[in-house]
Amino acid sequence: IDDRYSDTCPKCEEDWELHGGKCYYFSTRYSSWNQSRDDCRRGGGDLVKIDSREEQVENTAMNDDYDVFWIGLTDSQEEDKWLWVDDSPLNTSFLFWNDTQPDNWTLLPEGEDCVVMGKKSGVDDLKCWFDVFCKDPYKSICEKSAETERVTRV
After folding, report:
1. Which ranges carry the C-type lectin domain (predicted)?
2. N or C: less crowded end of the chain, CB within 10 Å?
3. 103: helix, coil or strand?
4. How confident is the model at residue 137 (pLDDT cuts 50, 70, 90)?
5. What is the C-alpha radius of gyration for the chain, rounded to an integer number of angstroms?
6. Which range marks the domain in which residue 123 is found?
7. What CATH number is given to the structural domain containing 42?
């Protein structure tokens, strides 16, 4: 094919949604953080890493107001050292913690080392992050790079 008449087009597998060159899968299965991460990896991705305000807004706009989803952020290796699933540190210029979060509520000895994204109380269109017990069951958001497909222009 003559490259002058073709473009690459990002695409996602069935049931994955394309946004900004990445594919997202909103799992409706309730699982622990670790099980959710394993499920995402089996699908070729990982729990979502939120790198920008745009990605936070896109992900919050794509799910139901009252849903709560695991994201790929944890301080399970070292308390208060928040890392994404790719081991990159949390960018402090993109923080979406709810008002009193993270609070590492210690009702359980393990504390709260994993993060969900959920609705901020009293605000209709804003989702925030909450640290929670990693074994609690929640839905999850998986992310992976979109595949590129060459399409011919006519």
Report:
1. 19-143
2. C
3. coil
4. very high
5. 17
6. 3-152
7. 3.10.100.10
Unique residue bearing structure tokens 């989803």: 69
- Looking at residue 121, what is its pLDDT? 62
Q: What share of the chain is helix, strand, coil (3-state, %, to 5)?
A: 15, 35, 50
Q: Which secondary structure element, helix H or strand E, spans residue 42, and what is its range?
A: helix 33-42
Reported as a single tens digit per residue, the pLDDT across 49-96 is 998 878 877 777 666 667 889 999 999 999 999 999 999 999 888 788
pLDDT of residue 85: 97
By the 8 A CB rule, do 126 and 60 touch?
A: yes
pLDDT confidence of residue 21: 87
C-alpha 69: how far from its chain's center? 8
H or E segment to which residue 18 belongs: strand 17-19
Measured distance CA(133)–CA(48) in Å, rounded: 18
Q: How many domains are there within the chain? A: 1
Rounded alpha-carbon distances, angstroms, from residue 57 to 22, 75, 81, 146: 14, 23, 24, 19
CB-CB contact of 28 with 140 (8 Å)? no
DSSP element (H, E) containing 33: helix 33-42
